[in-house]
Amino acid sequence: MDTRVVRLSVLGGHMVNAFLLMGRRPVLVDCGTPGTADRICDGITAAGVDPHDLEMIVVTHGHIDHFGAAAELHRRTGAPVAAHEADMPAYTAGHSNRRQRQPIGISGHLFSLTPPPNAKTEPVAVQTVLTGEYSLKDHGIDGRIIPTPGHTAGSVSVLLDQGDLIAGDMISGGFVGLLRYRPSHPPFHDDPDQAVDSVREVLTMRPHTFHIGHGGPLAADGVRDWLDHQLRTKASARR
Question: How far out from the chain centre does Cα 222 lie?
């Protein structure tokens, strides 16, 4: 059974996205910024799903714009939260560690100093602690959660058997999603080289579409062209 991927706009059209996966049972991927639980629940309802029927909430990584409303959504829906153990300090603290971020370019340096990425939220109790790949078949989705570290140590993505990849912030639309279809680095990564490696590894799994947290969706061929450019630029800089 194919899984329907429904984008839920959390902020500014495509600037911050969450995703509802509608298979045999519904699964939510990412939880937006603090205070957006109503908007996410409204989006779930508009897709024809009762929020109380959510099977699971998957958080792709420990940044405030992806787990900001996770605690409230868990409380309101009863759905267990799944997230990777490597980002657990952020979930238990209710904020990420800004010292781990490596800004990408001048815009990354400036954005890192603004309030949004440094905000705080309610700490999240994670019921399903991920350590590696995790099948979603028992949760009604033909696909699996895969580790894709680099943006954060505990970044994960959801790869559906049909070829859709819900990729968190492994890659972004340009200018934090304002240029929806232009592949780009997000403003910062914890480990930029590892993030590039994760994109390269994921492409070997032959997804056809990247559904991303900011902007998109992105065709895999466009992501592959972007990655090739990144690797050529890096090789030239080493000469």
Answer: 19
Residue 186: cis peptide before it, omega within 30 degrees of 0? no
Cα 179 to Cα 188: distance, rounded to the nearest angstrom? 17
Q: How many CA atoms lie within 13 A of 92 on its CB side?
A: 8
**Per-residue pLDDT reduced to its tens digit, 51-74:** 999 999 999 999 999 999 999 999
Q: At what angle do helices 192-203 and 220-238 cross, to 10 degrees?
A: 140
In this predicted structure, what is the pLDDT of residue 176?
Answer: 61
CATH of domain 4-238: 3.60.15.10
pLDDT of residue 177: 56
Return d(Cα 5, Cα 41) in angstroms, integer.
16
Residue 167 is encoded by which pair of tokens?
Answer: 């990729």
Task: Please report, for the chain, the start and end positions of each structural domain, with discontinuous segments joined by +.
Answer: 4-238
The per-residue pLDDT for 47 is 98
**What is the Cα–Cα distance from 8 to 35, expressed in whole angstroms?**
15
d(CA 156, CA 57): 13
166-185 in b/e form (b: 16+ CB < 10 A) is bbbbbbbbebbbeebebbbb
